[in-house]
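Weekly modeling sync, notes
Attendees: S.R. (lead), two postdocs, one rotation student

Agenda item 3: backlog of single-chain predictions. S.R. asked that every request posted to the team notebook include the full sequence so nobody has to chase files. The rotation student volunteered to paste the first one in as an example of the format we agreed on. Action items at the bottom.

Example entry:
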Amino acid sequence: MTASTPQLDDYRLEDRYLRESGRVFLTGTQALVRIPLMQAALDKKLGLNTAGLVSGYRGSPLGAYDQALWQAKDLLDEKRIDFVPAINEDLAATIMLGTQQVETDDDRQVDGVFGLWYGKGPGVDRAGDALKHGTTYGSSPHGGVLVVAGDDHGCVSSSMPHQSDVAFMAWFMPTINPANIAEYLEFGLWGYALSRYSGCWVGFKAISETVESAASVELPPLPEFQIPDDFTPPADGLHYRWPDLPGPQLETRIEHKLAAVQAFARANPIDRCLFNNPQARFGIVTTGKGHLDLLEALDLLGIDEARAAEMGLDIYKVGMVWPLERRGILNFVHGKQEVLVIEEKRGIIESQIKEYMSEPDRPGEVLITGK
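Predicted structure, as returned to the notebook:
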């Protein structure tokens, strides 16, 4: 060995969960195991005494998730994260609803419990009643719930393809769409923070092409989320409370929750403009894996950032597909001659853009460009 010989990383398989910084090798399934571990670490850093619960029902593309959780059982137990495989998706969602009631119990042993529900597309449909009740009645301030939907777009192991966004929209559940495994970690922690702030459960898309892939990932630092300064919660709050009898107050609270979602997304942007070219005449809006497909296509065409600037082209990557963060997307489309939206199957993002463009400006959401 000489002085120029590269130093090899003393990497062990268990480092995919144990390392707090640096680079690790993860499958999408293992990234879903790491998300609650990172949330536990973040809560410890914040001085919160929390626990976690993972429950769901196996099915491709999440068919190996339970095996990965069992393999990491000792580490999960150490971080007080329980894995309870459910008899079906409905019961798993009902268990999640129970985790958000802990903070209302005088005998609680923790500040809150963060939950992660998982199931494939048909499981999302099946568990609709329980999931809708969960997000309507609310998460807890130190808990939060991620609803991980395994969507099989290629219909590889399902009787039909699924796009769970539409179901999440029907339940007024914000939905985030990570493009790759690295974003699983970033978006997972962002989703928990959003759930805690807004009182909503948060949908998390895990499509086959991503969750069944693997990559070398640079671990992000534990984030610091900003509390919005342009939103004031209603007097009775946004979160789960007891008792909370059926009534119109539930619908009113949903409106406040969605306003809180917009405020959180403004204060902690998950959407981003790639080139920030104010002179761009053409815009492309993307999300999820479609964003990576677009970048590959542009690379094949020889269009880099400099060439895009010459062409008057800019790109906007959406992280939360519903509800679309209003101010950011309106800033992007402002002044464009033409905007192309690349998304999967249903025109969810496109329809929101058209709706926003027909509405008047709202307080706190004035356009930054073109004043």
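Discussion: group reviewed the output briefly. Residues 272-357 form a domain with the Rossmann fold fold (CATH 3.40.50.920).
Action items: rotation student to repeat for the remaining queue; S.R. to check formatting next week.
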